[in-house]
Amino acid sequence: MTNKPRLGVFSVTGCFGCQLTLAFVEDILLELLDKFEIAAFPMLKQENSYENLDIAIIEGSACRQEEIEELKKIRNNSKIVVALGACANSGSVQSIIEVSDKKQVMETVYNKKYKQYNPVEVGGIDKHIKVDFHIYGCPPDKEDLLLFIKQLLAGNIKPKQVDYNVCVECRAKANPCLLQEGKFCVGALTHGGCNALCPTNGHYCFGCHGYWEDSNVEALTELFKEYGFDKQLKNILAKFDCTSKQIKQIVK
Ligand code: SF4
Ligand code: SF4
Ligand code: SF4
After folding, report:
1. How far is the CA of 51 from the centre of ligand 3 (A)?
2. How far apart are CA 248 and CA 240, in angstroms?
């Protein structure tokens, strides 16, 4: 063990895409490796430790009781915990089980002949442990990670204050509104902070930053119905955030 602050990167159920993005912030990764002792980072090293962590960055969501125990172990050994990416913040694809027939989902994924497990309530990791900072996206934006690591290196983490939806950023960029053109987009229901990445590049927002809690869900659901987008809305929202009450009502 060295005198450097100890950083651990951990994964519960997810696709490892967040870790991969973190591993590719190459502009600053070497500095990070130099200033911190990397206690855990399964994508980069084989031996990983949970002990005496100054900061733990977690991707994925807990889908089994063992993973909840693992999250608690990480929390109990860490001064600061960061939820990285859509899975860790809102459950992502795994949370579909919350609005589906659980038995049917398990049989579809694992097949009847395989040993199945009892799923736990799937959602963001803050369902199970206290989270100090959130970095959104699927995968998270490299610039957001770069900013976060720079702040981490400077010992002064100041999360981006985002209290608006994707539409605010989209309008600020003077993008034409896809919805007004009769096209699909869930930016109005989605937590901002990505600088309206998708609509700026001609693609609809599909909600990877999670549900924006101040959304006028009823009015927006009516609007999507008028446009004939109800089915698409359900399918898209089910991919990223089935954990909030409002989204459950739309998706079920
Ligand atoms: S948030 Fe996206 S990129 Fe990250 S682990 Fe989940 S599915 Fe993969
Ligand atoms: S294109 Fe999408 S994100 Fe942009 S203003 Fe319209 S609904 Fe909002
Ligand atoms: S526009 Fe929507 S889907 Fe695209 S990065 Fe931003 S939040 Fe994610």
Report:
1. 35
2. 11
If one residue of 136, 138, 141 were mutated to test the ligand 1 pocket, choosing by the most ligand atoms within 8 A of its CB, it would be: 138
Task: Name the average pLDDT for the chain.
Answer: 90
Q: Quick: pLDDT tens for 176-195.
A: 999 999 999 999 999 999 99
Residue closest via CA to ligand 3's atom 2 equals 205
Say if residue 47 is exposed, middle or buried (CB neighbours under 10 Å; 0-12, 13-18, 19+): exposed
Nearest in space to 7 (alpha carbons), one of 219, 153, 129:
153
**CATH for the 6-154 domain, from 3.40.50.700, 2.40.37.10, 3.40.50.300, 3.40.50.980:** 3.40.50.700
Distance from the CA of 108 to the center of ligand 1, in angstroms? 21
Task: State in Å: Cα 180 to ligand 1 middle.
Answer: 30
pLDDT digits (tens, 9 = 90+) for 67-121: 999 999 999 999 999 999 999 999 988 888 888 888 888 888 888 887 878 889 8
Q: How far is the CA of 156 from the centre of ligand 3 (A)?
A: 27
Q: pLDDT tens digit string along 114-141?
A: 787 888 988 999 999 999 999 999 999 9
